[in-house]
Design goal:
POT_fam; transmembrane helix; two-stranded parallel ribbon; transmembrane; about 575 residues; disordered N terminus; Growth Hormone, Chain: A; transport; MFS_trans_sf
Length: about 575
């Protein structure tokens, strides 16, 4: 039936409201919209659903348990760290003391400054090479294959170290050359592993979004992926320090047998870790490499710099501004890259922390050798660092952090990192005090290990008990839990899914810069100047911790929003945990 003009006019005409009716109509519509929003906010989410904003703020957040494959990765890291610390913890004595045994067992006889310089270079090299491993993993082979490749490189270096530390080889002059070749190859191997194993363990956890769950006691809680990642890296770091307890064994092997059996033990344990990597292949969650992802990232950075605009590489920005660039990424990739740049800004403060951290395996060892050992090898004292970490991680993870979450006290990464810097400054302050006590005691006072301390051809330290050094290692260990663990966590959560290894290598690179700074301080590694070096590092670490918090504290409020970008990660979502398993969540 045909529609008349009158019907069309009537249908098109607006309702005939007077002013009072219009006002009432608008108010009712606004009230209905507000009621609708309130209903959405007050609704109760079912188990497995994403929580509402009200639930996020009112319900307790908990972490999930680690998947079995994450524990396999942790075992691999434990074996690698057993090897790394077990051998490198002996390097100061191996390089500093002469082969004739006049200062205790030694090999190369390069004195204090020479040993500190060479050991510091090794630390520097170990934290430059992760960039190589990261590029190979993210762009070509993937994390798993890259780890296997660099395990083989690592074993070659270990084999050279063992062979050239045998007394016959040392007597024929192969010591220095063999040591340098070995640490170059070992540094390449450990760097390639280091940049990939930390992101690989977090890759084993698939959940990207918060979800509601109910415990056995009937409490409704929120499973928070950010807390689970935090737990993963706490456990990961705990395994690192269990491995570093190799220093309980290798110093005694050095003292009572020789260096080469200690290095051989490290090689054997590393072979066990490599077998775990190879035999556990089918259990790992493995991300494929993303082709030219690193190249794309640097190209995007160049576009940002050229246009002086962080959004310039986005395809949407290019279209709006008539850009001619043809890009292979989307807007989301640039958002992720911007988040990674935020993490790199945070990492810029870390070098001063690593200068402090590096003292425990170098100058602290020499300091311990200037005191009465009472049968304790001077390089054994390093074990109080990992022991303190192993003791305090469970206390924090099972007691302190859960209580803080129940009381709704936030303890975000920026706050934890800042606290780590400040606790590290306490370690340096205490070390300076111990050094003063050494200089105040006989028989050599300000010149430890002088001729007056020689008994039966061996120089002994001043009359200060070696155990007095323990709190310095404990402070270093506690600082690591806050600064180093949070740095690993930040590097993973702020990196794009396709660039986890590369951003991790940027974080590790700060350790190399720290080693370079420590190398510059090597001329101060003599008595009595070293006491003032410890004092200066204490002041620097404290001030950097305060400035760091002032500069970056605003990022604590943005933490959840930045982590939410990973919700678009193509990795499969984990199934919701049943209430039985949720009851085991903290």
């Amino acid at each position: 039936m045909a529609t008349t003009d009158r019907e069309i006019e009537t249908a098109a005409a607006p309702p005939n409201y007077d002013n009072e009716d219009v006002t009432k109509h608008v108010v009712l519509n606004e009230k209905a919209a507000m009621d609708s929003d309130l209903d959405k906010e007050n609704q109760v989410s079912a188990d497995g659903e994403e929580p509402t904003l009200l639930e996020k703020t009112s319900l307790r957040h908990v972490a999930e348990n680690l998947p079995a494959s994450a524990w396999l990765v942790a075992i691999v890291e434990l074996c690698e760290r057993f090897t790394y610390y077990g051998m490198s913890g002996l390097f100061q004595n191996y390089v500093q003391r002469p082969l004739d045994g006049s200062q205790g067992r030694g090999a190369l006889g390069m004195d204090h400054q020479g040993a500190t310089g060479l050991v510091t270079f090794f630390q520097f090299w170990c934290y430059v090479t992760p960039i190589i491993g990261a590029i190979i993993a993210d762009q070509y082979l993937g994390k798993y294959k890259t780890i296997v490749l660099f395990c083989m490189v690592y074993m070659v270096g270990l084999l050279i170290l063992v062979c050239t530390s045998i007394p016959t080889a040392l007597q024929h002059g192969s010591g220095i050359g063999g040591f340098i070749v070995a640490i170059l190859i070992i540094g390449l191997g450990t760097g390639g592993i280091k940049s990939n194993v930390a992101p690989l363990i977090a890759d084993q956890y698939k959940r990207k979004k918060m979800a509601i769950s109910t415990t056995k006691k009937g409490e409704r809680v929120i499973i928070d992926p950010a807390l689970t990642i935090q737990r993963i890296y706490m456990i990961f770091y705990g395994c690192i320090n269990v491995g570093s307890l190799s220093l309980l064994a290798t110093p005694y092997m050095e003292l009572y047998i020789d260096f080469w059996p200690a290095y051989l033990l490290c090689l054997c344990v590393f072979m066990v870790g490599t077998l775990v990597v190879v035999l556990g292949r089918k259990y790992y969650v493995v991300r494929p490499p993303q082709g030219s992802i690193i190249t794309d990232a640097f190209r995007a950075l160049w576009i940002m710099i050229k246009n002086r605009n962080m959004d310039a590489p986005k395809p949407s920005w290019q279209q709006e501004h008539g850009g001619a660039a043809v890009v292979r990424w989307d807007d989301h990739f640039i958002d992720e890259l911007q988040r990674a740049l935020v993490a790199c800004r945070v990492f810029a403060f870390y070098p001063i922390y690593w200068v402090v951290y590096g003292q425990f395996s170098g100058n602290f060892v020499t300091q311990a050798g200037q005191m009465k050992g009472h049968g304790i090898p001077n390089d054994l004292m390093q074990n109080f660092d990992p022991i303190s970490i192993i003791v305090f991680i469970p206390i924090l993870e099972t007691l302190v952090y859960p209580v803080m979450r129940r009381l709704k006290i936030p303890f975000r990464p920026i706050t934890r990192i800042s606290l780590g810097f400040i606790v590290a400054s306490l370690a340096m302050m205490y070390a300076a005090i111990v050094q003063h006590l050494i200089y105040s005691a006989g028989p050599c006072y300000g010149q430890p290990l002088c001729d007056a301390s020689v008994v039966d051809g061996t120089a002994y330290g001043n009359n200060v008990h070696i155990a007095i050094q323990t709190p310095a290692y404990v402070f270093i260990g506690i600082s690591e839990i806050f600064a180093s663990v949070s740095g690993l966590e930040y590097a993973y959560t702020k990196a794009p899914p396709s660039m986890k290894s590369f951003v991790q290598s940027m974080y590790l690179l700060t350790n190399a810069f720290g080693s370079a700074l420590a190398e510059a301080l090597t001329p101060a590694a003599f008595d009595p100047a070293i006491m003032w070096m410890f004092t200066g590092l204490a002041c620097a670490s404290f001030l950097v911790g305060v400035v760091f918090y002032i500069v970056f504290r605003h990022l604590n409020a943005k933490e959840d929003d930045m982590n939410a970008l990973d919700a678009d990660d193509p990795m499969p979502e984990a199934p919701i945990v049943e209430s039985r398993r949720a009851s085991h969540a903290q």
